[in-house]
Amino acid sequence: MTEGFTWKDVDLERRTLTVHQGKGDKDRCTVLPKSLVEALAAQVERAREVWRADREEGLAGVHIPGALGRSMQRAAETFDWFWLFPARQTSIDPHGQVRRRHHIHAQAYGEAVKRAARNAGIEKWVTSHALRHSFATHLLEDGTDLRTIQELLGHEDITTTEIYLHVAVGTNGLGVTSPLDGLLVA
Length: 186
Known about the structure:
This protein has helices at residues 34-57, 66-71, 106-119, 128-141, 146-153, 158-162; strands at residues 10-11, 16-19, 28-31, 86-93, 98-103. The protein is of the alpha+beta class. A hairpin with a 4-residue loop joins β4 and β5 (98-103).
């Protein structure tokens, strides 16, 4: 599961987000909606303010694991590697026993998703995984081909992606609607 997003994972111009070590421990690129670009740009600036304050305070940069962290020690202090959604407080990192800021905790994110669903009047159980399924289903309903959805979700086998054919509204497992549905009724 991805630890958190950094500024280097976001491309606001192309409206893409790179997900590292997502479902199936895979990296992949996904789309950002136009409607969120402005809010995300504002979040980037809020994160930049936190990063600047951390730099002024002399805190250790983010933790970069393994060989990458050893070969890119100074990168951990750059904004490119800083969390897009940083935690409110700093803490002692068990990896190096230094004080640093981590990303927002997964539990806080999950609670925010549930709160947003409740505020939107959605009474069903909403989780990140449910949002992933909704994303795929809506793409299919809007006419996106299965191969593209397979790529966005990181499925190795197309049969895994084909499951969405059975839940998409307006499709019948064949991905088509009857021509009679398009006729005007007098």
